[in-house]
Recover the amino acids of this structure.
C-alpha cells in the first residue's frame, strides 16, 4: 500500500509549483511515484532513494581521501574554522528554507562573515537595477488572470522553468483571460532561437549583448522618436511592430532571465527593461517579473533583507555594521581577490557554478559544504555535512519568483540521524557561543586576539 | 515569581484615572497588580513620568512591501548622523535602516520609546506568511496584522449581492487562514481598478467589471465587521489619498459610518477607524491653491461619535512611502520621479513603494506637516484621536517623540513653522499658527495608549495600568512639575528611562538590555461562524481557477506564529 | 581540532603560496589573455578564423537536460553528457572543418577546456556558441564582474580548435586538476 500526498511543493526552480502528487511507501521512507511534476522535478523526487546517499559528515584527510566523522565533530570543526577566519564567506542559501537561512544569518553576524546568496551570480544585476530604478511587478496569478501580452526576454522557461508557461504565462485560462493562449500574444527576444522562442508568436533574434540598445530603441519608438534602420540586428519595422503589439494590449508582462543579467551591460540592461515597462504604463498596464532560478533564492534575499537590510552581498565581518557594496562584497569578487579566508557553502553548488578562478580560491581555503548530495563543492571541501532535503524530507518556508511565500511539505523521513540545515546551524551557533564563553571573549574579534595570544 | 514596584512616579493613565498623581505601579508575573511583597525589586521613578506601554494603531513594519523597501533602498542605511547600521549593545543585533528599519531595529527602537504593541496595517492575504515571518523575527513588541479586504473579488461579489452572511463567513475564513486581526480597507475598488491602470477617485466611482462602488464596499465591510463582532472596527484608508480637494471624498467616506452601531464584547464603541487623516484633508484644486481642510474634517469627526482617526503626521524627513494604494504610488512617482515599485496581488490587492523626501523648503510638504498637527490639535475627544506617522509614509516611527513634542509645545512647533522657506504661505493656507493648544501628558497617554488599545478591542489588557492588565510600563525622565521643553522633551520621550514588557525590564536609560527574555505574542482573531457551504464552494472554485497557488497551501501554518494569542469570538 | 589529521587545505590558513600578489593582477587573466586581445582585433577586421581554429562568442545557459542531470547527481554520466559539450552553428562546423561530435579545445581569457562540439539544440547563428552551465563551462568563464558581482557567463570570446584526440575529463577530476589538488577519487561515486 502506498499513500498519496497531494499539493506537494516542488523545490527545484523559482516557479515553486505546489500541485505535485507524491506516492509514498507505507513506512514513509520511500517515494514510489510523482505526478504533475516536470522532468526535473520528477527526477528530484525519484532520485532521493538512489543508493550512495551520504548520511554522515565526511572530512577530507591529508591524502585527499575522505573519512566519516560524527555530526559533533563536524560542528566543532565548523565553529572553530569560522571563528578562526578573519572574514569567512557564507555563500549559497538558495536551496534551503527560510528558517535555516534566518538561523544561518545570525551565525554570520556572530562570527563576522559575509553572507551572499545565488543572486550574486543570477539576478544580482536585476537587484542592482531595482535599487537604481524600482520595479513595477505583480504576482504570477495576475499574469494568469489578466495578461494578454507576454514577453520573454533573455529567458528560456521551456528549459529552466518547465511548467511556467502552462501554469502562469502562455496557456492558462484565467478570469479575464478565458481564451488562454488564443487570447495572448507571446513575444520572445533572445540571441538563440530557444525552445521558448518556438512557441512564441513573435521571435525577435537580437545580436548577443545588444539587449540594452534594443530596449533603448523600443523606448525611443514608444515616445514616437526616430531610430536607425536596424538596432542590435533587428530591423526598425520589427521593433515598431513590437511596440504596436504592446500598446495594443490591456496587460503586458515582461519575464526576463540570465540572458540579460549575465551579458554585457548587466544591471543596465535590466534598468532599461524596467524603464521600458514603466513607460508602457503611460499607455496600458505593464509589469515585469524576474525569472528567479533556485526555488528559494528569493527567500534567501527576503530573510537577509528583513534581518540586515540588503538582498544579497551583505558583509557582516565588521561585527558592528552591515555593509553592501556589490563588486566588493559579492562572492566572486571576494574569492578572486583573495579577500576571504574561509568559506562555507550552504545549499548551493559554488564549485559548479562560479567561474573557475573563484572556485580555485575556494578550494584552497578551508571550506565546509552543507548539501544533501555530493556535488562539485563537496568534492573540493574540507568537510561535507549532509543534510535533509527541503521540500522532501523537511518542510519550511520558501519564496516563489514573484516573492510569494509558500510553506513546503515534508513527504518522507530523512535517513536516520541526518540533521536539517536549521538544526545544523542551531548547533553551530550553540558551539560558537560555547567556544566564546570558554575563551572568555565577548565577540569574534576578541576571539581572534585570544587565538593570537594562544599561539604566541 | 518576579515582583517589581515602580515607586513614586507621576502616573498618567486614563484607565485607572490618574492624571499625574504620584503613585506606585506594581508588577507580578507579567501583570499589573494591586500590591507586591517586600522582596520586590524597587524602581525609583520619583520625578519621572510613568505610563502604560504605548500602542501603535497603524504602522507598516512587516511584510512584502516593507521588505521591498529595504531591498531597493540601500541608501536608507547610509545616512550620516542617524543610527543606520550599528550594533548598539553586546546583547542586541546589528540595527540597520532609517525609514524602513530592519526587524531588529524596529523592535528595539519601539522599545526605546516605550511601545508594547504594534498593528501592522496592511497584510495582503497571499503574502501573510511573509508578514508573520517578519513579525516572528521582530523582538519585544506584541503584534497583529490586518488583512486587506477593500479590493477582494470575493467581497465584491458578496457585498454587491448583499450577502452579509457569506461576506462574514469569508472574512472569518481569511482571518483564520492568514492569522489576521481585522478588516483593513485600502482605496476601496481603486486598487482593483489599478489592475487595468485605472483608479476610483470618489466613493461613487464604480469598480471596472465588478460594478460595485467604494461606498458600497465600505458600507458592506462595516456591516460585516459588526456582524462578526470583531474586536477592531473597519480600518479605512479612503479613496483619493494625497490629492488637492480630496477632503470631500474623505467626508463622504466618513459619513458611511452614520448608519452603523458598534456590536462587540471588547469595549469598542466605534465602527470606523479612518487612518492617516492628514493625507485626506486637503482643499484646493491643484498643488498651487492647495490648502488645509483639517478643521472641516475634524469638525465632522468631533461630532460623529462612532468614528476614530489617526493623524499621519509628516515629520519632514526623507522616507519611503508604501501602501496598498497601487495607483497612488504610480502617480507619486510621476510627481517626484523617484524609483517606483509596484506589486499587484491576484484577486486581493495591489501595493506600491516610492521614496519621498518631505523637504523643509517645499511648500506642499510644509503644508502637510501643518495639516497633520492641526488634526491632532482640533480633536475634542482624545480617546478617538491617535497619533501616527503612518510609518513610514509620512515619516519614520522613530520620529514619534518629535511629533509629540510639536504637539505639546507651541513654541517648538512655531519655531519650526517660522523657519520654513514658505512659512508665510503655510500660515495663510492653514490655521496652525492660530492654535495655542498644547497637548498634555495625560492627553498624550490617551492618544498613544488608551485610545488605540480601545479601538483595537484590547482595552482590557493594553494601554492602561489597572490591576490585571499586561505589565507594559514605560518610565520617562520627565518631571511634570518642571516640564522639559522642545528638544529636551523630545529626547526624554525618545529614550525611556525604563521600559517593562510583560514585566521584563528590556530598556534602561534608553538602552535595550536584552530582547530574548521577552516572549512576544502574535494576536489574531478566530471568529466563529456557522458552516457556510456556499463560501467554501466559492473558495475552492476560485482557487482552482484563478489563484496561482492551491487552496491547501494558502493557510498560514502554526509554526509561522510560534507564540499565538488567539482572540476567540463566539458564533454571531 | 578533534577530527584527526588536519587537511592539507587547512594549512593554507597560515601559508599563502598559491599566487603572487605582488604581480599586477588582471582579474580573469591567464597567459592566453593578451593573445586573445590580439585575436579580438583580428575579429573586428572581419576574420574569425585563427590558425586552425575560429573565434566565437560564447553564452552559457541552463538547459532541461542539465537540470535533470543536476538532480540525478553531478558525478553522474547524465551530467557529464549534458554539460561537457559546446554547441556550434552548422556554418562554424564547416569553417572549422570538423564533423559534429568531435572534441574541441576551447580557450578563453580565463582558461582552456576540452569539450565535445555538437550541433545546436536551440538555434544559434554563426559566431555564437553555447556551453551548458556547469564546471566545464566555468573553466572558460571570465571572472571579471564589472563591479556587479556577476561574472561574464554570457558573451565572452573563445578560440575553438579541433582536438579530436584530446580527452574530456570528468567533472571532479577536472576541478581537482585545475585547482592543483591531487585527485584520489571517492568510493561514493567511483
Amino acid at each position: 500500500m502506498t499513500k498519496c500526498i497531494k499539493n506537494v511543493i516542488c523545490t527545484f526552480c523559482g516557479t515553486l509549483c505546489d500541485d505535485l502528487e507524491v506516492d509514498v511507501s507505507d513506512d514513509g521512507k520511500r517515494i514510489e511515484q510523482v505526478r504533475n511534476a516536470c522532468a526535473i522535478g520528477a527526477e528530484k523526487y525519484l532520485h532521493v532513494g538512489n543508493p550512495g546517499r551520504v548520511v554522515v559528515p565526511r572530512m577530507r584527510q591529508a591524502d585527499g581521501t575522505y573519512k566519516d566523522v560524527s555530526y559533533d565533530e563536524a560542528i566543532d570543526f565548523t565553529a572553530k574554522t569560522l571563528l578562526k577566519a578573519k572574514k569567512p564567506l557564507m555563500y549559497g542559501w538558495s536551496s534551503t528554507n527560510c528558517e535555516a537561512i534566518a538561523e544561518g544569518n545570525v551565525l554570520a553576524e556572530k562570527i563576522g562573515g559575509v553572507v551572499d546568496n545565488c543572486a550574486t551570480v543570477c539576478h544580482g544585476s536585476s537587484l542592482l537595477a531595482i535599487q537604481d530604478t524600482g520595479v513595477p511587478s505583480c504576482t504570477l496569478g495576475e499574469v494568469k488572470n489578466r495578461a494578454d501580452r507576454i514577453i520573454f526576454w533573455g529567458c528560456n522557461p521551456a528549459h529552466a522553468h518547465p511548467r511556467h508557461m502552462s501554469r502562469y504565462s502562455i496557456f492558462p485560462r484565467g478570469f479575464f483571460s478565458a481564451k488562454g493562449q488564443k487570447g495572448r500574444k507571446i513575444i520572445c527576444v533572445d540571441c538563440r532561437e530557444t525552445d521558448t522562442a518556438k512557441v512564441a508568436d513573435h521571435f525577435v533574434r537580437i545580436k548577443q549583448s545588444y539587449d540594452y540598445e534594443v530596449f533603448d530603441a523600443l523606448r525611443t519608438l514608444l515616445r514616437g522618436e526616430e531610430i536607425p534602420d536596424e538596432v542590435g540586428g533587428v530591423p526598425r519595422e520589427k521593433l515598431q511592430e513590437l511596440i504596436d503589439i504592446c500598446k495594443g494590449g490591456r496587460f503586458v508582462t515582461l519575464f526576463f532571465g540570465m540572458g540579460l543579467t549575465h551579458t554585457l551591460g548587466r544591471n543596465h540592461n535590466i534598468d532599461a527593461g524596467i524603464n521600458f515597462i514603466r513607460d508602457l504604463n503611460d499607455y496600458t498596464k505593464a509589469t515585469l517579473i524576474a525569472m528567479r532560478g533556485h526555488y528559494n533564492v528569493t527567500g534567501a534575499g527576503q530573510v537577509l533583507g528583513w534581518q540586515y537590510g540588503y538582498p544579497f552581498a551583505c558583509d557582516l565581518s565588521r561585527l558592528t555594521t552591515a555593509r553592501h557594496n556589490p563588486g566588493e562584497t559579492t562572492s566572486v569578487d571576494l574569492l578572486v581577490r583573495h579577500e576571504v579566508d574561509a568559506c562555507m557553502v550552504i545549499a548551493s553548488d559554488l564549485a559548479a557554478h562560479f567561474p573557475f578562478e573563484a572556485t580555485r580560491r575556494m578550494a584552497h581555503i578551508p571550506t565546509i559544504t552543507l548539501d544533501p548530495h555530493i556535488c562539485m563543492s563537496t568534492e573540493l571541501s574540507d568537510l561535507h555535512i549532509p543534510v535533509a532535503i527541503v521540500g522532501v524530507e523537511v518542510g519550511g518556508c520558501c519564496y516563489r519568483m514573484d516573492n510569494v511565500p509558500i510553506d513546503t511539505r515534508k513527504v518522507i523521513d530523512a535517513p536516520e540521524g541526518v540533521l536539517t540545515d536549521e538544526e545544523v546551524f542551531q548547533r553551530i551557533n550553540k558551539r560558537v557561543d560555547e567556544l566564546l564563553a570558554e575563551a572568555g571573549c565577548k565577540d569574534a574579534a576578541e576571539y581572534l586576539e585570544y587565538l593570537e595570544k594562544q599561539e604566541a | 515569581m518576579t515582583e517589581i514596584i515602580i515607586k513614586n512616579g507621576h502616573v498618567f493613565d486614563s484607565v485607572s484615572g490618574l492624571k499625574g498623581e504620584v503613585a506606585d505601579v506594581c508588577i507580578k508575573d507579567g501583570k499589573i497588580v494591586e500590591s507586591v511583597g517586600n522582596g520586590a525589586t524597587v524602581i525609583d521613578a520619583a520625578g519621572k513620568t510613568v505610563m502604560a506601554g504605548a500602542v501603535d494603531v497603524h504602522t507598516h513594519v512587516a511584510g512584502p512591501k516593507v521588505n521591498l523597501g529595504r531591498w531597493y533602498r540601500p541608501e536608507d542605511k547610509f545616512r550620516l548622523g542617524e543610527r543606520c547600521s550599528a550594533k548598539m549593545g553586546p546583547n542586541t543585533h546589528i540595527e540597520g535602516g532609517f525609514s524602513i528599519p530592519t526587524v531588529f531595529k524596529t523592535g528595539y527602537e519601539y522599545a526605546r520609546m516605550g511601545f508594547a504593541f504594534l498593528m501592522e496595517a496592511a497584510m495582503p492575504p497571499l503574502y501573510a506568511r511573509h508578514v508573520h515571518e517578519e513579525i516572528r523575527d521582530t523582538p519585544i513588541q506584541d503584534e497583529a496584522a490586518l488583512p486587506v479586504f477593500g479590493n477582494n473579488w470575493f467581497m465584491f461579489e458578496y457585498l454587491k449581492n448583499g450577502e452579509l452572511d457569506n461576506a462574514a463567513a469569508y472574512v472569518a475564513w481569511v482571518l483564520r487562514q492568514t492569522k489576521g486581526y481585522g478588516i483593513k480597507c485600502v482605496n476601496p475598488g481603486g486598487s482593483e481598478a489599478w489592475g487595468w491602470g485605472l483608479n476610483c477617485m470618489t466613493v461613487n466611482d464604480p469598480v471596472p467589471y465588478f460594478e460595485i462602488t467604494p461606498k458600497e464596499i465600505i458600507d458592506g465591510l462595516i456591516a460585516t465587521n459588526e456582524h462578526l463582532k470583531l474586536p477592531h472596527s473597519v480600518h479605512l484608508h479612503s479613496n483619493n489619498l494625497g490629492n488637492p480637494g480630496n477632503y470631500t471624498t474623505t467626508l463622504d467616506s466618513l459619513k458611511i459610518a452614520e448608519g452603523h452601531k458598534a456590536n462587540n464584547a471588547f469595549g469598542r464603541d466605534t465602527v470606523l477607524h479612518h487612518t492617516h487623516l492628514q493625507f485626506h484633508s486637503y482643499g484646493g484644486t491643484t498643488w498651487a491653491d492647495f490648502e488645509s481642510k483639517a478643521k472641516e474634517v475634524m469638525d465632522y469627526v468631533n461630532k460623529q461619535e462612532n468614528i476614530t482617526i489617526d493623524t499621519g503626521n509628516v515629520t519632514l524627513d526623507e522616507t519611503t512611502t508604501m501602501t496598498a494604494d497601487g495607483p497612488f504610488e504610480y502617480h507619486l512617482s510621476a510627481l517626484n520621479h523617484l524609483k517606483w515599485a509596484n506589486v499587484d496581488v491576484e484577486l486581493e490587492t495591489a501595493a506600491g513603494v516610492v521614496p519621498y523626501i518631505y523637504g523643509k523648503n517645499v511648500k506642499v510638504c510644509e503644508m502637510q506637516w501643518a495639516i497633520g498637527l492641526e488634526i491632532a490639535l482640533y480633536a475634542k475627544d482624545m480617546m478617538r484621536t491617535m497619533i501616527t506617522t503612518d510609518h513610514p509614509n509620512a515619516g519614520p516611527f522613530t520620529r514619534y517623540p518629535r511629533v509629540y513634542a510639536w504637539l505639546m509645545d507651541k513654541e517648538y512647533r512655531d519655531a519650526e513653522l517660522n523657519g520654513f522657506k514658505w512659512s508665510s504661505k503655510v500660515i495663510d493656507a492653514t490655521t496652525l499658527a492660530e492654535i495655542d493648544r498644547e497637548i498634555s501628558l495625560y492627553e498624550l497617554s490617551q492618544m498613544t495608549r488608551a485610545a488605540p488599545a480601545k479601538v483595537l478591542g484590547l482595552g482590557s489588557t493594553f494601554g492602561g495600568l489597572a490591576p490585571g492588565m499586561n505589565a507594559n510600563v514605560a518610565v520617562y525622565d520627565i518631571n511634570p512639575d518642571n516640564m522639559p521643553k522642545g528638544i529636551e522633551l523630545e529626547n526624554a520621550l525618545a529614550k525611556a528611562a525604563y521600559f517593562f514588557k510583560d514585566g521584563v525590564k528590556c530598556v534602561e536609560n534608553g538602552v535595550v538590555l536584552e530582547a530574548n527574555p521577552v516572549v512576544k505574542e502574535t494576536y489574531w482573531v478566530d471568529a466563529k461562524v456557522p458552516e457556510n457551504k456556499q463560501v467554501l464552494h466559492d473558495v475552492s472554485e476560485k482557487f482552482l481557477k484563478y489563484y496561482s497557488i492551491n487552496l491547501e497551501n494558502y493557510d498560514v501554518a502554526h509554526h509561522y506564529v510560534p507564540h499565538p494569542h488567539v482572540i476567540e469570538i463566539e458564533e454571531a | 581540532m578533534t577530527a584527526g589529521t588536519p587537511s592539507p587545505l587547512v594549512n593554507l590558513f597560515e601559508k599563502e603560496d598559491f599566487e603572487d600578489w605582488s604581480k599586477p593582477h588582471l582579474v580573469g587573466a591567464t597567459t592566453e589573455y593578451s593573445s586573445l586581445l590580439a585575436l579580438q582585433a583580428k575579429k573586428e577586421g572581419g576574420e574569425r578564423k585563427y590558425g586552425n581554429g575560429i573565434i566565437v562568442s560564447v553564452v552559457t545557459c541552463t538547459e532541461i537536460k542539465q537540470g535533470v542531470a543536476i538532480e540525478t547527481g553531478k558525478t553522474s554520466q547524465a551530467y557529464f553528457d549534458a554539460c561537457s559539450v559546446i554547441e556550434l552553428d552548422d556554418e562554424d562546423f564547416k569553417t572549422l572543418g570538423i564533423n559534429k561530435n568531435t572534441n574541441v579545445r576551447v580557450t578563453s581569457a580565463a582558461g582552456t577546456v576540452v569539450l565535445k562540439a555538437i550541433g545546436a539544440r536551440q538555434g544559434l547563428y554563426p559566431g555564437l556558441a553555447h556551453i551548458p552551465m556547469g564546471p566545464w563551462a566555468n573553466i572558460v568563464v571570465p571572472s571579471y564582474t564589472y563591479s556587479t558581482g556577476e561574472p561574464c557567463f554570457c558573451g565572452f570570446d573563445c578560440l575553438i580548435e579541433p582536438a579530436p584526440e584530446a580527452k574530456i575529463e570528468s567533472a571532479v577530476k577536472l576541478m581537482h586538476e585545475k585547482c592543483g589538488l591531487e585527485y584520489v577519487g571517492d568510493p561514493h561515486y567511483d
Notes: Chains C and B do not touch (no CB pair under 8 Å). Residues 33 and 170 of chain C are 26 Å apart (CA to CA).
